[in-house]
Amino acid sequence: xxxxxxxxxxxxxxxxxxxxxxxxxxxxxxxxxxxxxxxxxxxxxxxxxxxxxxxxxxxxxxxxxxxxxxxxxxxxxxxxxxxxxxxxxxxxxxxxxxxxxxxxxxxxxxxxxxxxxxxxxxxxxxxxxxxxxxxxxxxxxxxxxxxxxxxxxxxxxxxxxxxxxxxxxxxxxxxxxxxxxxxxxxxxxxxxxxxxxxxxxxxxxxxxxxxxxxxxxxxxxxxxxxxxxxxxxxxxxxxxxxxxxxxxxxxxxxxxxxxxxxxxxxxxxxxxxxxxxxxxxxxxxxxxxxxxxxxxxxxxxxxxxxxxxxxxxxxxxxxxxxxxxxxxxxxxxxxxxxxxxxxxxxxxxxxxxxxxxxxxxxxxxxxxxxxxxxxxxxxxxxxxxxxxxxx
Amino acid sequence: xxxxxxxxxxxxxxxxxxxxxxxxxxxxxxxxxxxxxxxxxxxxxxxxxxxxxxxxxxxxxxxxxxxxxxxxxxxxxxx
Lengths: 391, 79
Prior knowledge:
heterodimer, A: alpha/beta, Aspartate Aminotransferase, domain 1, seven-stranded mixed β-sheet, about 40% helix, globular
Protein backbone atom coordinates (compact mmCIF):
# COMPACT_ATOMS: atom_id res chain seq x y z
CA UNK A 1 0.00 0.00 0.00
CA UNK A 2 1.37 3.43 -0.85
CA UNK A 3 1.50 6.11 1.81
CA UNK A 4 -0.50 8.96 0.33
CA UNK A 5 0.49 12.42 1.54
CA UNK A 6 -0.80 14.48 -1.38
CA UNK A 7 -4.28 15.21 -0.06
CA UNK A 8 -3.93 18.93 -0.80
CA UNK A 9 -3.92 17.98 -4.49
CA UNK A 10 -6.76 15.49 -4.15
CA UNK A 11 -7.65 13.27 -1.24
CA UNK A 12 -7.15 9.52 -1.33
CA UNK A 13 -8.64 7.12 -0.44
CA UNK A 14 -12.32 8.04 -0.68
CA UNK A 15 -14.80 6.49 1.77
CA UNK A 16 -16.61 3.38 0.44
CA UNK A 17 -19.91 5.32 0.66
CA UNK A 18 -18.60 7.75 -1.98
CA UNK A 19 -17.92 4.92 -4.40
CA UNK A 20 -21.30 3.40 -3.58
CA UNK A 21 -23.03 6.70 -4.36
CA UNK A 22 -21.48 6.79 -7.85
CA UNK A 23 -22.63 3.24 -8.41
CA UNK A 24 -26.12 4.09 -7.20
CA UNK A 25 -26.39 6.92 -9.71
CA UNK A 26 -25.20 4.79 -12.62
CA UNK A 27 -27.27 1.73 -11.74
CA UNK A 28 -30.51 3.28 -10.48
CA UNK A 29 -31.06 7.03 -10.76
CA UNK A 30 -29.52 7.53 -14.18
CA UNK A 31 -31.53 10.52 -15.44
CA UNK A 32 -30.79 14.19 -16.02
CA UNK A 33 -31.87 16.22 -12.98
CA UNK A 34 -34.48 18.91 -13.48
CA UNK A 35 -34.87 18.24 -17.18
CA UNK A 36 -37.75 15.82 -17.29
CA UNK A 37 -40.59 14.88 -15.00
CA UNK A 38 -40.01 11.13 -15.12
CA UNK A 39 -38.96 9.18 -12.11
CA UNK A 40 -35.33 8.68 -13.17
CA UNK A 41 -34.87 12.42 -13.71
CA UNK A 42 -36.47 13.10 -10.35
CA UNK A 43 -34.24 10.48 -8.69
CA UNK A 44 -31.16 12.22 -10.12
CA UNK A 45 -32.44 15.62 -9.00
CA UNK A 46 -32.98 14.21 -5.53
CA UNK A 47 -29.32 13.06 -5.39
CA UNK A 48 -28.13 16.55 -6.37
CA UNK A 49 -30.42 18.30 -3.89
CA UNK A 50 -29.48 15.93 -1.07
CA UNK A 51 -25.83 16.82 -1.67
CA UNK A 52 -26.63 20.53 -1.81
CA UNK A 53 -28.51 20.28 1.46
CA UNK A 54 -25.68 18.39 3.16
CA UNK A 55 -23.20 21.10 2.08
CA UNK A 56 -25.51 23.93 3.16
CA UNK A 57 -25.82 22.26 6.55
CA UNK A 58 -22.07 21.71 6.87
CA UNK A 59 -21.27 25.38 6.16
CA UNK A 60 -24.46 26.74 7.79
CA UNK A 61 -25.63 28.54 4.63
CA UNK A 62 -28.96 30.41 4.89
CA UNK A 63 -30.59 27.79 2.67
CA UNK A 64 -29.38 25.17 0.15
CA UNK A 65 -30.02 27.43 -2.89
CA UNK A 66 -27.06 29.56 -1.75
CA UNK A 67 -24.72 26.69 -2.76
CA UNK A 68 -24.03 26.29 -6.49
CA UNK A 69 -22.11 23.37 -7.91
CA UNK A 70 -19.03 23.88 -10.08
CA UNK A 71 -16.42 21.62 -11.67
CA UNK A 72 -13.83 22.47 -9.00
CA UNK A 73 -12.69 25.30 -6.74
CA UNK A 74 -10.94 27.07 -9.62
CA UNK A 75 -14.26 27.26 -11.46
CA UNK A 76 -15.95 28.57 -8.29
CA UNK A 77 -13.26 31.23 -7.78
CA UNK A 78 -13.53 32.35 -11.40
CA UNK A 79 -17.32 32.48 -11.09
CA UNK A 80 -17.08 34.69 -7.99
CA UNK A 81 -14.30 36.97 -9.25
CA UNK A 82 -15.56 37.50 -12.82
CA UNK A 83 -19.14 37.62 -11.58
CA UNK A 84 -18.45 40.60 -9.30
CA UNK A 85 -15.48 42.62 -10.48
CA UNK A 86 -15.74 45.22 -13.27
CA UNK A 87 -13.14 47.49 -14.93
CA UNK A 88 -12.27 50.34 -12.59
CA UNK A 89 -12.85 48.22 -9.47
CA UNK A 90 -10.12 47.55 -6.94
CA UNK A 91 -9.41 44.11 -5.47
CA UNK A 92 -7.32 43.32 -2.37
CA UNK A 93 -5.64 39.94 -1.97
CA UNK A 94 -2.60 38.43 -0.24
CA UNK A 95 0.77 37.03 -1.27
CA UNK A 96 -0.27 33.50 -0.22
CA UNK A 97 -2.85 32.90 -2.93
CA UNK A 98 -3.02 30.02 -5.37
CA UNK A 99 -2.92 30.73 -9.11
CA UNK A 100 -6.64 29.96 -9.24
CA UNK A 101 -7.05 33.37 -7.58
CA UNK A 102 -3.98 35.16 -8.97
CA UNK A 103 -4.39 34.28 -12.63
CA UNK A 104 -7.97 35.62 -12.86
CA UNK A 105 -6.85 38.78 -11.01
CA UNK A 106 -3.78 39.27 -13.20
CA UNK A 107 -5.99 38.85 -16.24
CA UNK A 108 -8.52 41.37 -14.90
CA UNK A 109 -5.68 43.87 -14.39
CA UNK A 110 -5.30 43.94 -18.17
CA UNK A 111 -8.96 45.01 -18.42
CA UNK A 112 -8.66 47.99 -16.07
CA UNK A 113 -9.10 46.35 -12.67
CA UNK A 114 -6.70 47.44 -9.90
CA UNK A 115 -5.17 44.72 -7.72
CA UNK A 116 -3.29 45.13 -4.43
CA UNK A 117 -1.41 42.10 -3.16
CA UNK A 118 -0.75 42.45 0.57
CA UNK A 119 2.56 40.81 1.52
CA UNK A 120 2.42 38.18 4.28
CA UNK A 121 5.11 37.34 6.84
CA UNK A 122 7.70 34.64 6.03
CA UNK A 123 5.63 32.05 7.93
CA UNK A 124 2.67 32.89 5.68
CA UNK A 125 0.68 34.74 8.35
CA UNK A 126 -1.15 37.94 7.51
CA UNK A 127 -0.89 41.23 9.37
CA UNK A 128 -4.57 42.21 9.20
CA UNK A 129 -3.75 45.90 9.65
CA UNK A 130 -1.82 45.83 6.36
CA UNK A 131 -4.87 44.38 4.65
CA UNK A 132 -6.98 47.09 6.28
CA UNK A 133 -4.59 49.76 4.96
CA UNK A 134 -4.88 48.35 1.45
CA UNK A 135 -8.66 48.85 1.28
CA UNK A 136 -9.80 52.12 -0.31
CA UNK A 137 -12.85 53.71 -1.87
CA UNK A 138 -13.47 51.69 -5.02
CA UNK A 139 -12.41 48.38 -3.43
CA UNK A 140 -15.03 45.94 -4.66
CA UNK A 141 -13.67 42.66 -3.36
CA UNK A 142 -11.28 41.16 -0.83
CA UNK A 143 -10.17 37.63 -1.65
CA UNK A 144 -7.99 35.46 0.57
CA UNK A 145 -7.31 31.81 1.06
CA UNK A 146 -8.52 30.22 4.30
CA UNK A 147 -5.57 27.81 4.48
CA UNK A 148 -2.40 28.12 2.39
CA UNK A 149 -1.85 25.23 -0.02
CA UNK A 150 1.92 25.66 0.43
CA UNK A 151 2.50 25.93 4.18
CA UNK A 152 -0.97 25.42 5.66
CA UNK A 153 -1.10 28.84 7.33
CA UNK A 154 -4.67 29.77 8.31
CA UNK A 155 -5.86 33.28 7.55
CA UNK A 156 -7.90 35.20 10.18
CA UNK A 157 -11.08 35.07 8.09
CA UNK A 158 -13.35 36.33 10.90
CA UNK A 159 -11.27 39.49 11.38
CA UNK A 160 -11.02 40.09 7.62
CA UNK A 161 -14.79 39.60 7.25
CA UNK A 162 -15.42 42.28 9.88
CA UNK A 163 -13.17 44.78 8.11
CA UNK A 164 -14.75 44.06 4.72
CA UNK A 165 -18.32 44.20 6.07
CA UNK A 166 -17.63 47.56 7.78
CA UNK A 167 -16.72 49.04 4.41
CA UNK A 168 -19.40 47.27 2.41
CA UNK A 169 -16.78 45.30 0.47
CA UNK A 170 -17.53 41.70 -0.52
CA UNK A 171 -15.21 39.07 0.93
CA UNK A 172 -14.45 35.88 -1.00
CA UNK A 173 -12.75 33.01 0.85
CA UNK A 174 -10.87 30.25 -0.98
CA UNK A 175 -11.58 27.24 1.24
CA UNK A 176 -9.96 24.68 -1.08
CA UNK A 177 -7.65 23.39 1.64
CA UNK A 178 -10.00 23.66 4.60
CA UNK A 179 -13.55 22.72 3.57
CA UNK A 180 -14.29 19.42 5.27
CA UNK A 181 -11.12 19.57 7.36
CA UNK A 182 -11.86 22.62 9.52
CA UNK A 183 -15.31 23.77 10.62
CA UNK A 184 -16.57 26.84 8.74
CA UNK A 185 -19.81 28.65 9.61
CA UNK A 186 -20.31 31.12 6.76
CA UNK A 187 -23.00 33.14 8.53
CA UNK A 188 -21.24 33.38 11.87
CA UNK A 189 -17.95 34.27 10.15
CA UNK A 190 -19.71 36.84 7.98
CA UNK A 191 -18.12 35.96 4.66
CA UNK A 192 -19.97 36.75 1.44
CA UNK A 193 -18.62 34.10 -0.89
CA UNK A 194 -16.75 30.87 -0.32
CA UNK A 195 -15.25 28.66 -3.00
CA UNK A 196 -14.59 25.02 -2.12
CA UNK A 197 -13.19 21.94 -3.75
CA UNK A 198 -15.29 18.76 -3.59
CA UNK A 199 -12.43 16.29 -3.97
CA UNK A 200 -9.99 17.34 -1.23
CA UNK A 201 -11.11 17.62 2.39
CA UNK A 202 -14.71 16.88 1.42
CA UNK A 203 -13.50 13.48 0.11
CA UNK A 204 -15.71 13.50 -3.00
CA UNK A 205 -14.71 12.68 -6.57
CA UNK A 206 -12.62 14.98 -8.79
CA UNK A 207 -14.69 17.22 -11.04
CA UNK A 208 -16.71 18.58 -8.11
CA UNK A 209 -16.63 21.87 -6.26
CA UNK A 210 -18.92 24.69 -5.37
CA UNK A 211 -19.51 28.28 -4.37
CA UNK A 212 -21.44 29.61 -1.40
CA UNK A 213 -23.08 32.98 -2.13
CA UNK A 214 -24.55 34.99 0.74
CA UNK A 215 -28.16 36.03 0.36
CA UNK A 216 -28.10 39.53 -1.17
CA UNK A 217 -24.88 39.11 -3.18
CA UNK A 218 -25.52 39.20 -6.94
CA UNK A 219 -23.14 37.56 -9.41
CA UNK A 220 -23.35 37.51 -13.17
CA UNK A 221 -22.92 34.01 -14.62
CA UNK A 222 -19.79 32.77 -16.39
CA UNK A 223 -21.92 30.51 -18.59
CA UNK A 224 -25.48 30.87 -19.82
CA UNK A 225 -27.62 28.05 -21.16
CA UNK A 226 -30.14 25.38 -20.39
CA UNK A 227 -31.14 24.91 -16.78
CA UNK A 228 -34.33 22.86 -17.16
CA UNK A 229 -36.20 25.80 -15.62
CA UNK A 230 -37.95 28.86 -17.09
CA UNK A 231 -37.66 27.15 -20.47
CA UNK A 232 -40.12 29.45 -22.28
CA UNK A 233 -37.63 32.30 -22.02
CA UNK A 234 -34.43 32.78 -23.97
CA UNK A 235 -32.88 34.81 -21.17
CA UNK A 236 -31.02 33.38 -18.20
CA UNK A 237 -33.08 32.68 -15.05
CA UNK A 238 -32.33 35.20 -12.30
CA UNK A 239 -32.69 32.85 -9.34
CA UNK A 240 -30.25 30.52 -7.61
CA UNK A 241 -29.00 27.94 -8.06
CA UNK A 242 -30.21 27.77 -11.71
CA UNK A 243 -28.76 31.15 -12.74
CA UNK A 244 -25.22 29.87 -12.15
CA UNK A 245 -25.66 26.17 -13.08
CA UNK A 246 -26.21 26.06 -16.84
CA UNK A 247 -25.70 22.74 -18.58
CA UNK A 248 -26.00 19.22 -17.20
CA UNK A 249 -24.34 18.86 -13.83
CA UNK A 250 -21.79 16.20 -12.88
CA UNK A 251 -24.56 14.23 -11.17
CA UNK A 252 -22.50 11.15 -10.35
CA UNK A 253 -19.71 13.26 -8.89
CA UNK A 254 -22.12 15.43 -6.91
CA UNK A 255 -23.84 12.33 -5.51
CA UNK A 256 -20.42 11.08 -4.42
CA UNK A 257 -19.59 14.46 -2.90
CA UNK A 258 -22.81 14.36 -0.87
CA UNK A 259 -21.85 10.93 0.45
CA UNK A 260 -18.44 12.33 1.39
CA UNK A 261 -20.01 15.22 3.29
CA UNK A 262 -22.35 12.89 5.18
CA UNK A 263 -19.41 10.60 6.02
CA UNK A 264 -17.51 13.57 7.53
CA UNK A 265 -20.57 14.78 9.43
CA UNK A 266 -20.91 11.39 11.05
CA UNK A 267 -17.31 11.59 12.26
CA UNK A 268 -17.70 15.28 13.16
CA UNK A 269 -15.51 18.02 11.64
CA UNK A 270 -13.96 18.78 15.05
CA UNK A 271 -12.68 15.19 15.24
CA UNK A 272 -11.29 15.46 11.70
CA UNK A 273 -9.52 18.73 12.60
CA UNK A 274 -8.12 17.22 15.80
CA UNK A 275 -6.78 14.19 13.91
CA UNK A 276 -5.15 16.48 11.33
CA UNK A 277 -3.47 18.54 14.07
CA UNK A 278 -2.08 15.39 15.71
CA UNK A 279 -0.56 14.33 12.39
CA UNK A 280 0.90 17.80 11.70
CA UNK A 281 2.30 18.14 15.26
CA UNK A 282 4.01 14.75 15.18
CA UNK A 283 5.35 15.30 11.68
CA UNK A 284 6.70 18.81 12.31
CA UNK A 285 8.24 17.79 15.65
CA UNK A 286 9.93 14.83 13.92
CA UNK A 287 11.22 17.01 11.07
CA UNK A 288 12.85 19.40 13.57
CA UNK A 289 14.85 16.47 14.96
CA UNK A 290 16.38 15.59 11.58
CA UNK A 291 19.60 17.53 10.91
CA UNK A 292 19.51 19.44 7.63
CA UNK A 293 15.74 19.80 7.35
CA UNK A 294 14.13 23.24 7.21
CA UNK A 295 10.42 23.48 7.95
CA UNK A 296 8.38 26.45 6.70
CA UNK A 297 5.12 27.89 7.91
CA UNK A 298 3.54 28.70 11.26
CA UNK A 299 4.94 27.31 14.49
CA UNK A 300 1.49 27.13 16.09
CA UNK A 301 -0.42 24.07 14.89
CA UNK A 302 -3.76 25.72 15.78
CA UNK A 303 -3.02 28.23 13.01
CA UNK A 304 -2.35 25.54 10.41
CA UNK A 305 -4.36 23.16 8.25
CA UNK A 306 -3.04 19.72 7.27
CA UNK A 307 -0.32 21.01 4.92
CA UNK A 308 3.41 21.07 5.76
CA UNK A 309 6.27 22.29 3.55
CA UNK A 310 9.94 21.61 4.13
CA UNK A 311 13.29 21.21 2.38
CA UNK A 312 16.36 19.07 2.90
CA UNK A 313 19.26 21.50 2.76
CA UNK A 314 21.55 19.29 0.66
CA UNK A 315 18.88 18.17 -1.77
CA UNK A 316 16.48 19.74 -4.25
CA UNK A 317 12.75 19.08 -3.80
CA UNK A 318 12.33 16.94 -6.92
CA UNK A 319 15.12 14.57 -5.74
CA UNK A 320 13.40 14.12 -2.40
CA UNK A 321 10.08 13.48 -4.13
CA UNK A 322 11.66 10.93 -6.45
CA UNK A 323 13.36 9.01 -3.61
CA UNK A 324 10.20 9.05 -1.47
CA UNK A 325 8.19 7.69 -4.38
CA UNK A 326 10.60 5.10 -5.77
CA UNK A 327 12.21 3.75 -2.62
CA UNK A 328 9.61 4.31 0.10
CA UNK A 329 6.24 4.34 -1.69
CA UNK A 330 5.44 7.76 -0.22
CA UNK A 331 3.45 10.13 -2.44
CA UNK A 332 4.28 13.80 -1.87
CA UNK A 333 4.29 16.88 -4.06
CA UNK A 334 7.36 18.94 -4.85
CA UNK A 335 7.91 22.31 -6.47
CA UNK A 336 5.88 25.51 -6.45
CA UNK A 337 2.36 24.11 -5.94
CA UNK A 338 0.83 26.71 -8.33
CA UNK A 339 1.50 29.53 -5.87
CA UNK A 340 4.64 31.46 -6.92
CA UNK A 341 4.00 34.50 -4.68
CA UNK A 342 3.66 32.22 -1.64
CA UNK A 343 7.18 30.89 -2.33
CA UNK A 344 8.52 34.46 -2.66
CA UNK A 345 6.90 35.12 0.72
CA UNK A 346 8.44 32.14 2.51
CA UNK A 347 11.77 32.48 0.65
CA UNK A 348 11.71 29.29 -1.42
CA UNK A 349 11.30 30.67 -4.95
CA UNK A 350 12.13 29.28 -7.53
CA UNK A 351 13.15 25.82 -6.25
CA UNK A 352 10.00 25.33 -4.17
CA UNK A 353 9.50 22.85 -1.36
CA UNK A 354 8.54 19.28 -0.56
CA UNK A 355 4.92 19.29 0.59
CA UNK A 356 3.16 16.69 2.74
CA UNK A 357 -0.60 17.05 3.10
CA UNK A 358 -2.77 14.87 5.29
CA UNK A 359 -6.30 13.53 5.46
CA UNK A 360 -8.58 11.72 7.90
CA UNK A 361 -7.27 8.42 6.53
CA UNK A 362 -3.60 9.02 7.37
CA UNK A 363 -2.15 7.49 10.53
CA UNK A 364 0.54 8.32 13.08
CA UNK A 365 2.30 5.10 11.99
CA UNK A 366 2.55 6.50 8.45
CA UNK A 367 4.10 9.68 9.89
CA UNK A 368 6.70 7.57 11.73
CA UNK A 369 7.53 5.61 8.56
CA UNK A 370 7.95 8.81 6.56
CA UNK A 371 10.13 10.47 9.21
CA UNK A 372 12.44 7.45 9.08
CA UNK A 373 12.57 7.72 5.29
CA UNK A 374 13.31 11.45 5.43
CA UNK A 375 16.06 10.85 7.97
CA UNK A 376 17.70 8.41 5.57
CA UNK A 377 17.31 10.78 2.62
CA UNK A 378 18.74 13.75 4.58
CA UNK A 379 21.72 11.62 5.69
CA UNK A 380 22.32 10.42 2.16
CA UNK A 381 22.02 13.93 0.69
CA UNK A 382 24.69 15.46 2.93
CA UNK A 383 27.14 12.62 2.14
CA UNK A 384 26.65 12.74 -1.64
CA UNK A 385 27.40 16.10 -3.15
CA UNK A 386 25.38 17.12 -6.16
CA UNK A 387 27.66 16.47 -9.09
CA UNK A 388 25.55 15.19 -11.90
CA UNK A 389 22.94 17.76 -12.86
CA UNK A 390 24.01 18.69 -16.37
CA UNK A 391 26.85 18.23 -18.76
CA UNK B 1 18.92 6.42 -18.69
CA UNK B 2 21.00 9.58 -19.05
CA UNK B 3 18.68 11.95 -20.90
CA UNK B 4 15.76 14.02 -19.74
CA UNK B 5 13.01 15.79 -21.63
CA UNK B 6 11.17 18.65 -19.96
CA UNK B 7 7.70 19.74 -21.03
CA UNK B 8 5.29 22.66 -20.73
CA UNK B 9 2.39 20.50 -19.60
CA UNK B 10 1.73 16.98 -18.41
CA UNK B 11 -0.45 16.34 -21.46
CA UNK B 12 2.68 16.36 -23.60
CA UNK B 13 4.77 14.44 -21.06
CA UNK B 14 2.32 11.53 -20.89
CA UNK B 15 1.91 11.58 -24.68
CA UNK B 16 5.69 11.48 -25.11
CA UNK B 17 6.02 8.45 -22.84
CA UNK B 18 3.30 6.62 -24.78
CA UNK B 19 4.78 7.51 -28.17
CA UNK B 20 8.35 6.54 -27.24
CA UNK B 21 7.27 3.23 -25.71
CA UNK B 22 5.23 2.42 -28.82
CA UNK B 23 8.45 2.93 -30.77
CA UNK B 24 10.30 0.49 -28.53
CA UNK B 25 12.33 3.18 -26.76
CA UNK B 26 13.05 3.31 -23.03
CA UNK B 27 11.16 6.09 -21.26
CA UNK B 28 10.23 6.82 -17.65
CA UNK B 29 8.32 9.71 -16.07
CA UNK B 30 9.82 11.35 -12.97
CA UNK B 31 9.13 14.53 -10.94
CA UNK B 32 10.53 17.38 -13.07
CA UNK B 33 13.79 18.79 -11.66
CA UNK B 34 13.18 22.54 -11.23
CA UNK B 35 16.88 23.24 -11.93
CA UNK B 36 16.35 22.20 -15.52
CA UNK B 37 12.94 23.65 -16.19
CA UNK B 38 10.30 25.42 -14.12
CA UNK B 39 7.56 24.56 -16.53
CA UNK B 40 6.00 21.24 -15.66
CA UNK B 41 5.70 18.87 -12.74
CA UNK B 42 6.79 15.78 -14.65
CA UNK B 43 9.72 15.07 -16.97
CA UNK B 44 10.67 12.04 -19.05
CA UNK B 45 13.91 10.13 -18.75
CA UNK B 46 15.29 8.50 -21.92
CA UNK B 47 18.56 7.36 -23.50
CA UNK B 48 20.48 10.50 -24.48
CA UNK B 49 22.14 8.68 -27.40
CA UNK B 50 18.68 8.42 -28.95
CA UNK B 51 18.04 12.17 -28.82
CA UNK B 52 17.85 12.86 -32.54
CA UNK B 53 15.61 9.89 -33.13
CA UNK B 54 13.46 10.83 -30.12
CA UNK B 55 13.13 14.48 -31.25
CA UNK B 56 12.03 13.38 -34.70
CA UNK B 57 9.48 10.88 -33.37
CA UNK B 58 7.97 13.38 -30.93
CA UNK B 59 7.83 16.16 -33.53
CA UNK B 60 6.11 13.82 -35.97
CA UNK B 61 3.44 13.12 -33.33
CA UNK B 62 2.95 16.84 -32.46
CA UNK B 63 4.33 16.39 -28.94
CA UNK B 64 5.64 19.77 -27.73
CA UNK B 65 8.78 19.69 -25.64
CA UNK B 66 10.45 22.35 -23.52
CA UNK B 67 14.01 21.03 -23.71
CA UNK B 68 16.27 17.98 -23.98
CA UNK B 69 18.99 17.64 -21.37
CA UNK B 70 21.85 15.34 -20.54
CA UNK B 71 20.88 14.24 -17.07
CA UNK B 72 21.97 11.51 -14.77
CA UNK B 73 20.88 12.36 -11.22
CA UNK B 74 22.75 11.22 -8.14
CA UNK B 75 19.51 9.58 -6.97
CA UNK B 76 20.42 6.75 -9.39
CA UNK B 77 23.11 5.80 -6.87
CA UNK B 78 20.67 5.42 -3.98
CA UNK B 79 20.94 2.09 -2.24
